[in-house]
């Protein structure tokens, strides 16, 4: 039998039966995921396949209000964006500066492609292939 999401389920080892219990919330009532969703969405009928035009208008108004608030924050803190731009530089600019220093900067992807090429190469020795696999494992783990 299906049980509501968030229920506590256990197997009673004495009787061999499965038991389910709704979790108790702070106010003593069970608070399933569906009930939390209804609280968050308000009086919107989430079970129907369509929404009324009034419900859609209210939802769009909320979205527009949040966008306006975001724009106000951006207008109020343009110095913050400039500060971030001063601290960080684009990757293309960094690559150019490293090339001037005769240092080649490679991305993880480029290194992984080289390691796969080394592993698939027939000219590589067994030790080189093992080392390539160990290095590749590190980069794959990062991804």
Strand order of the largest sheet: 1-2
Q: In angstroms, what is the radius of gyration?
A: 29 Å
Q: Mean pLDDT across all residues, rounded?
A: 78
Percentage beta strand? 5-15%
Helix content: 55-70%
Kindly report how far apart the N and C termini lie. Answer: 40 Å
Helix run count? 6
Largest sheet: 2 strands, antiparallel
Task: Count every beta strand, where a strand is a DSSP E run of 2 or more residues.
Answer: 2
Order of helices and strands: EEHHHHHH
- Secondary-structure-based class equals mainly alpha
Shape: flat
Stretches with pLDDT under 50, minimum 5 residues: none
Quick structural gist:
InterPro entries: Hsp70_NEF-Inhibitors (IPR050693). The chain is mainly α.
Describe the protein's architecture and organization:
The structure is a single chain. With 143 residues, the protein is mainly α. Among the domains are: 51-102, no CATH class; 104-142, no CATH class. It is 58% helix and 6% strand. It has helices spanning 33-41, 53-76, 78-87, 91-100, 108-120, 126-142, and strands spanning 8-11, 18-21. A two-stranded antiparallel sheet has the order 1-2. Strand 1 (8-11) and strand 2 form a beta hairpin. Helix 5 packs antiparallel against helix 6.
Sum up the structure in keywords.
143 residues; mainly alpha; two-stranded antiparallel sheet; 2 strands; 58% helix; flat
Show the helix and strand layout.
Blueprint: E1 8-11, E2 18-21, H1 33-41, H2 53-76, H3 78-87, H4 91-100, H5 108-120, H6 126-142
Antiparallel strand pairs: 1-2
